[in-house]
């Protein structure tokens, strides 16, 4: 994960738009999408659904529609097959042995790290695999942000956040005397940018906001 400290709303806006431009360029440089396929009308939803075997399940007689990706993301056939291959041919102690299987599993693991880094435009060394969102946010909150905080410093969240992006900040705020400030949203679920801007002060030390809300579908990449 790339982490940076920002001091003003305009600086934040500039950094975010640069980050997303980079992310989008990396995404588009792969073969599976072309730019105009980003329009909802031209995405071949059926083709994408066909990659996910579980989406063929009937649930109470209906086709499955799955929205709960923040909690558990369904896996496409390519991922299922790669994991099956791993357990059949490579499974071993990653980075913790010198035998052939350890070499295979370590190589597979490190290749996944490289691909993830290329996909999001990060350095390979900055990719840390964790078990879930809460663990990842707790890691950033406790290892990176907490040591920066003094009483009265501020952390900005938004009203759209899941507990996983609230409680870790509340815990470190309680320990350090920092204060949490919350950006409001409008009736369509968009963050009200003018009010968000108002929240910035010289005491702002960190902003943590969801990329896409799984409750409302609000997408902050747009
Ligand atoms: C939007 C969202 N964020 C975070 C989480 C927490 O994820 P994890 O269980 O991986 O910590 C969930 C779990 O339901 C979620 O729905």
Describe the protein's architecture and organization.
- The chain is mainly alpha-helical and 222 residues long.
- 41% of the residues lie in helices and 8% in strands.
- It is built from seven helices and five strands.
- It has a three-stranded parallel β-sheet with strand order 4-3-5. The chain has a two-stranded antiparallel sheet with strand order 1-2.
- Strand 3 (154-158), helix 6 (167-176) and strand 4 (179-183) form a beta-alpha-beta unit.
- It starts with 8 loop residues before the first helix and ends in a 15-residue tail after the last strand.
Looking across the biggest beta sheet, what order are the strands in?
4-3-5
Task: Tally the helices.
Answer: 7
The number of E-state strands comes to 5
First-residue to last-residue Cα separation: 21 Å
What portion of residues belong to β-strands?
A: 5-15%
Give the uncertain stretches in residue-range form. Answer: 30-37
Helical percentage: 40-55%
Order of helix and strand elements from N to C terminus: HHEEHHHEHEHE
What gyration radius follows from the Cα positions, in whole Å? 20 Å
Structural descriptors:
globular, binds pyridoxal-5'-phosphate, mainly alpha, 8% strand, three-stranded parallel sheet, 5 strands
